[in-house]
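re: ur msg from earlier - yeah i can do the magnesium ion complex, just paste it... oh wait u already did. ok heres what im feeding in:
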Amino acid sequence: MKFGGTSVADAERIKHAAHRIVAKREAGNRVVAVLSARGKTTDALIADALEISPTPDPREMDMLLSTGERQSCALCAMAINDLGHRAISLTGSQAGIVTDTSHTKARILDVRAKRITDALDEDAIVLVAGFQGVSTAKDVTTLGRGGSDTTAVALAAAIGADVCEIYTDVAGVFSADPRVVPDARKLPVVSFDEMLEMAASGAGVLQLRSVEYARTHGVRIHCRSSFSDAPGTVVGDGAEHGAGAGPAITAVTHSTDEARVTLEHVPDAPGMAGRIATVLADANVNIDMIIQNEPAAAGEGAEMSFTVPRADLRIALDALAGLAGELGAAVRTDESVGKISVIGEGMKTQPGVAARIFTTLGEQGVNIQMIATSPIKISCVIELDRVPDAVRALHATFLS
Ligand code: ADP
Ligand code: ASP
Ligand code: MG
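and the outut:
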């Protein structure tokens, strides 16, 4: 059972989560619960750091950020103990979550869950601080924003749990972000492939890495409300979903955390894209949509554009500066871009989805700057301010 930040925001909610955990235990289950930091704690800790230093040391950042989820776990353990059950709280490190050394976005390498299984054998309820681990260099690491989901899935895989329940502030995974599209529908089931595309394109309800991990390890995720008993959304393999049988489109997603980088006057020679992408990969920056234009005339140089997470823009520009200078390329950036995506397994067999997306955006007067596709997703980069309108219009076209 994983409880997100809103679900443990204050004392009442921590007690409520404790009751839900105890009820599961009393129904005869062995329970491991992963908790997030309370409410906006992580944001507040980041702000604290930036007040001290404009470029906080990543190792120290992780020492700081990891404290938020530890607070939640200790407090919830107290609540469970008061309900007459025995609970033990563990940091990510104590829980055996071993990561690589990329501070603030570490990747889980191994889960050594013996301490958890021993505690379960002794009849305890185990509470694990989400979003953190210990690196191979024995430093505290964090797993990137939203990382408690990945903690929960990784633990579920390691202990062979029946299900990984993600308790959150919405009733499940919806056909669009319910905060933007009020008539979005709760999806009873979503395939791993669709959920991967959704998480990768901005549906923050599950962290992308948690979905990747679940698919690789075959962990069934049940994403549901922490404030109601109603069933939420089961994320599982395509078979459960009856892939292809449903409507062509499952969801419309959006992201407002993008920035666009354009390199102009890139020499028109083999290997250039590789050098640019390698510089960014070495700086641990993920590039998303990429377009490269052939030079209009011989000798004019090519243009390459891609998007990066806005939070990584500075790192990306620092990483590119040397190479751009060497190639004589100019670097331009645009921070007022967003991305909308339309996702569905049924797209594989139904023609015309792209035409309907482009027409809908055109009718809204929304200009498309970049387009990328996969077999089950079409994404467009558009002006940041137009993202909510575009999402609502696309949802109305495909899902209302
Ligand atoms: P938690 O703190 O529980 O981890 P998050 O804020 O990370 O919660 O994720 C839940 C939020 O995800 C919801 O409040 C909702 O606004 C947002 N969200 C974005 N897209 C979707 C979607 N397609 N379905 C459900 N929620 C979504
Ligand atoms: N507390 C962390 C964050 O706000 C991790 C999480 O909530 O999953 O990103
Ligand atoms: Mg989250």
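cool cool. The two ends are 32 Å apart (CA to CA). ping me if u need the other ligands too
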